[in-house]
Task: structure prediction
Amino acid sequence: MLSNKNLFFLIIQAQVGIGILGLPYILYNDVQQDGWMSLLVAGVLAQGILIILVALSRTSPKETFYELNHRLLGTFLGKIVNILYILYFISFSLLLMILVSDVINTWILHRTPKWAIILLLLIATTYIAKEQILTISRTFLFFSILFIGLIILLFMVYPQDNHFGRMLPMGSKDFTEIVKASPDAFVSLIGFEIILFIMPFIKNPKKSLLVLTFANLFTVLLYVFLFITCVITFSGAQFSLIQEPLLYLFRGLSFHFVERIDIIFLSFWIVPISTTLVVQLYNASLGVQNLFAIQRNKCVYLLAGILLGLCLLPVSYSIKESLSSFMIYLNIIFVFIFPALLLIIAKVRGIKA
Amino acid sequence: MKKVTRKISVLLVILPLLTGCWDQRLIVEQEVVNGLSFDLEDKKIKSTMVVLNIIPKGTGFFDFKNQISSATGNSLEDTYRELRAYYTGPLTASKSRIVLFGESFAKKNLDAYLDLFFRLPDPYLGSKVAIVKGSEAGELFTLKEIGTNPIAFGLYEIIEAAESNSTVPIGNLNILFTYFNEEGKDFILPVIEKKGEKVAVSGAGLISDNSYSGKMISLKSSSLLLLFMDKYGERVDLETYLDDKKKLNNQVGYRVVKAKRKMDLKKDGSGLPVVDLHLDLKVMIHQYPRTEKISDQRMEELETLISRDLTKKSKAIMKQTQEANCDVLGIGRKLKETDPEAWKAIDWREAYPEIKINTKVDVAIEKTGILQ
Result:
């Protein structure tokens, strides 16, 4: 059973991943130095969704989301919805892997073929994802030490040549513009939907909302801190050029005995990125298990095989852009709109019963 | 048996992945570029690079040899192609220490030429950057060493020393990238000169709109400028004549212990900003022309004397920056941040030489060394 501590780290590991590398760049291009406001708006949005998700899974705490679907929507409709969810998780993982292999390819391993990077990534993630949720969460707890490393490194940027005035003028953008940019920030907060699937395994379900709130708060604050660090370090036109500001931030760092912190950092940051993948694989594998009634670890192998196959398709890389813009809407549909509808159905049925 | 075969087959799949054979770059095969320089020659770019070859000579002893080659072309990539042909292995700029610009090259818009340093993930952005005055930049590399350091390392250390002596602010390619793209702020680069067989930093070159203005702040004044920029190094030593006659041994020398700068922007009638710069210094006297007790009254006299002297000097420095059209203090940036409307209304490149900059320096003597 998952304790509160386990749950907290499970959620932040699910949230923080590849998105953190490019998030400040995307936000800056939308609303310049006011991007941190968009982040806060996205955080509030995520908090609202969290409340809905927890309320939904509390309607029957002993069932996972897939079983709930079956019960509430009937066997046929429930099956269709479950398949859609599995497809959503698969496409999310696919996009994630394409982005990871792209970043590693451009920053570190220029000549290594992408399939090799993806294969390595998949081997590692399947190895974790096939385990029980408790094992997964304990692994994540251990990996979370990397967040401390990230925060320390971010603080090390401060003694460098930076200028706090770059945060000014504050609030120069309209509120509507700031809200419009928040879906871009919201993408990087995705991951907490795992709560729909792990409710039956939580030791203390009543406290779960509180734990999730703290996890969400941590992630949002981490992003805000990162964004502010980037704004004060990069000058305006420079910031709008740098696609991975987090890495570029560390590229400028240099110590007496260690140089190229960016590459060292990225090599380690693959771990939090793959934890996001683990969570997606876990969610999807539960669905496959529900669908075909086979052992869950076999479902994970099956999914990993499918993902590898998809990545090997030559088209996968050309659809990167369209897939990532498509994903913004898919996230909102699958994480927000559909669970909200289901909650209404559950409530209506509950009243009837 | 089945388990064993499974394990072995898994191992066989994983093992080839562990070797990292696609991206291995052995250091022995690499030609590590230590220094780069760019000059302008007959309207073409002349790149010179120095590669350090280390020759082992028995245990613990080694000698080094600089391998220098240059090439001309229309772009950096053009010259790079030619340069590659001189060396046995692949060139890598991931360890370059120094990037030098010839005076004429520096007068071009630098940001457009240096793009490849920032666009690729490999080049090392900690390299120091300097402008070479008086000779071709590539010529500096022909000196074999500075002190006991190979030339590229020696130049790096000379500039590093200039930074801690507050001649120029801390700078490298990475910081340059930031200022290339900063609106309303210019920067300064160290200017180095070859003097016989030696190299020395001779001042801070004023960069205007990403190209060298040709003017520089001399070694004597640059520390004061750095104080006004709020970007001074570990040591700031200044000196003032005790009276107007510049005779021998008539200077008081002092070290800045604490400095506080204030920049206030006001508007005049025509909408142009008026800048009030105020510098509060706490100093320690470290050289006085006579070894005698400095009385309290004398101390006060000294404080007013130094304050007046520095105020006068700072006016001259600001004038110089305005003549070069180099807004090194970032007054434009401050205007942009505090009053975006006014910033949009004026063309800063044209406005900066015209604006009024008032400077004031207040000095308080805190210590007089270990003698009273």
Remarks:
- Chain A has one domain: 4-352.
- Chain A is about 75% helix and 0% strand.
- Chain A touches chain B through 33 residues (CB under 8 Å).
